[in-house]
Structures are given as structure tokens and as C-alpha cells.
Design brief:
Blueprint: H1 2-26, H2 44-53, E1 65-68, E2 74-79, E3 85-92, E4 95-101, E5 108-113, H3 117-120
Antiparallel strand pairs: 1-2, 2-3, 3-4, 4-5
């Protein structure tokens, strides 16, 4: 019974990561004025940076949502049952800003460098589900 449950959980996690990558790839379709109100196109280099970030070796949880911002950047969100919200704003091909909002506290943000494709495999996983406080260095990409 446990083996069946583990297989089902694995299949679900694989499906979540595949859906996140598909959602990120679809951002290439967001050309100029994609919202009908003058939004900027999402550059290919930002989609590529998003796909680098969407690696279970870097983050153990696939984001709840991925979407374009009107300024041409990419936003990813994680919503937690305890009310925590984490947002990643990918503005350049080499860095990402994480904003964390915990219930009853002010938002906290941190800008970190995105790893290169070869560095992704060397980065330990960060489990967003277990992040419950603003631990110093919780979002550091240093190995």
C-alpha cells in the first residue's frame, strides 16, 4: 500500500513540475501588448531564467502560479495553508527577487543571483513548505 502511495505522490510531483515548466514556456507567447493595455513582451532570456529556476534541485516545490507582469517580467507564487505567500520576481536573466509575506508581519524581500545551468545541479534544495520564519540566509543560493 505504501509503495502505491509513494508512486502516486511521485507522479503528482512530476506532473506539478511539468505543468510549471509548460506554464513558463507559454510565456513566450506573451508578445507586446499581450494584455491589450500596452504590456511589454516577456523576453526569451527571462523565460529561460524561469526554466532554470524551475529545477527540483533548486526548489523542492513547484510554484502555485506563474504569470507575466505588465512590465515584461515573470512572477511565480507559492501559497501556503498557513497563510504564507512567497513571490519570485524574475526581472533579469541572472537574478531573482523573492518576497515573503508571513501572517502578521511585514513583507521581507531579498535579491539573489540565479545559478547558471551548470550551477543548478550543485545547489541544495530549498523546501518552501518548511520555511515558516525569516531565517537568515534561508534564500541564499550559495552552496
Amino acid at each position: 500500500m505504501n509503495a502505491l502511495r509513494n508512486d502516486s505522490m511521485h507522479d503528482l510531483l512530476v506532473a506539478q513540475w511539468e505543468a510549471a515548466r509548460d506554464e513558463a514556456t507559454s510565456l513566450l507567447n506573451c508578445g507586446e501588448n499581450w494584455d491589450g493595455e500596452g504590456a511589454r513582451a516577456v523576453p526569451k532570456k527571462l523565460v529561460e531564467a524561469t526554466l532554470r529556476l524551475l529545477d527540483p534541485k533548486f526548489l523542492t516545490d513547484a510554484p502555485t502560479d506563474i504569470y507575466p507582469a505588465p512590465d515584461g517580467t515573470v512572477l511565480m507564487e507559492w501559497h501556503r495553508a498557513n497563510g504564507c505567500v512567497h513571490v519570485a520576481n524574475i526581472r533579469t536573466s541572472d537574478r531573482v527577487e523573492f518576497v515573503h509575506r508571513f501572517p502578521g508581519s511585514k513583507p521581507h524581500s531579498e535579491v539573489v543571483m540565479l545559478p547558471s545551468q551548470t550551477e543548478v545541479s550543485a545547489v541544495p534544495s530549498t523546501n518552501l513548505a518548511e520555511l515558516t520564519s525569516l531565517d537568515e540566509g534561508a534564500w541564499s543560493l550559495a552552496a
